[in-house]
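Box S2. Input/output pair 1.
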Amino acid sequence: MVGEEGAFVLGWDEVLTEEELSMTLKVLCMSEEEFNVYKEQDGWEDDSEEEENSTLSNEALSRLKTPCKKLLYDSVLLTLESYRTDLKAEQDLLNNKEAYKKLSRREQQALHVRFGQKKILHQLLELVQ
């Protein structure tokens, strides 16, 4: 369902791999009975137009059903635990001009990427709490 990398792409304002995330949440949050029907039908024949035209914006994420929000919340926590440092440590390093200057250009770029990733993940945590 999520492709070769098994990851979802999140942006500041919406989920960029919304179809994959939406489908995954639907399946993972199904009851056993719903899942059996889903398997028997080889998936859904046609989703409603409303679902096809909707995007997983930040607002839509905050309105997800509780089981889906819990699943996302727990997944984000696991993802954040995979980093060696937390958001505050990255922010402190960005704010410490002397320490930042000692980093190579590549390390500086990696720091900015990690910081941005963690900010987006923390934003998602707030949306699905």
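Box S3. Input/output pair 2.
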Amino acid sequence: EPKRKAAFGSIGRRIPYRILHVINQDGESLGNMHRAEALKLMDQNDLKLVLLRENAEPPVYRLMTGQQIHEEQLKRAKKKKESPKPGMVQKELSFSSAIAKNDLETKTKQIAQWIEKKYHVKVTIRQAK
């Protein structure tokens, strides 16, 4: 079974690494510390530890509030939704507001064909001078 990437969020108290690089909630580096020290800091400040970069040496964790975690999850979800899917074709069509009727019909047919093929279509209309 392939290893799934964990969702962004608090990892609780189960930290598989002994030495961690910790960043506080303001983004300042607190340096490398032992797992027990990081957990104590987490409890003292009523924060949650979140894994940022697992493949760094040592792994990077950040202390965050629940609100910060929620905002980051929303930001990542929005970014993922906006990025085109692999294999997804995006077509773009641009025309002037002073387009001739037959040109408009031709471009409309083209857009309909792309939509049938399940392409994402972006239409830009420029204002005529």
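Caption for Box S3: The mean pLDDT is 83. The chain is about 35% helix and 30% strand.
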